[in-house]
Amino acid sequence: MHRGEQHLVWVKSTYTDSGSCVEWARPEGAVLVRDSKRPQGARIPVQPAAWSALVDWVKE
User: Fold this and answer.
1) Which domain holds residue 51?
2) Mean of the pLDDT values across residues 16-45?
3) CA 34 to CA 44: how far, in whole Å?
């Protein structure tokens, strides 16, 4: 568990209509990604710059 994770705000895409997607949270200096169907499961840490690049790519 990431330090302070109990206070994180998890975000889900507004484009999701099935409820099956990823969620992300932004603790200081990091991005955590998890499966929305398994919120107690694994969290994948991603560098903020890599997350931003992924989001920009998806928007294109």
Assistant:
1) 5-59
2) 86
3) 6
- What pLDDT was estimated at residue 13? 76
How many distinct structural domains can be found in the chain?
Answer: 1
Q: Is the pLDDT of residue 3 over 80?
A: no
Torsion sign (Cα): 21, 33, 13, 4? positive
- Cβ of 3: how many Cβ atoms within 10 Å? 8
Sign of the dihedral defined by the CA atoms of residues 57, 30, 35, 21, in that order: negative
| Distances 15 to 19, 21, 31, 38, 48 between C-alpha atoms, Å | 10, 10, 20, 19, 21
Of 3 and 41, which is predicted with more confidence? 41
Q: Which two tokens stand for residue 8?
A: 């994180």
Q: How confident is the model at residue 32 (pLDDT cuts 50, 70, 90)?
A: very high
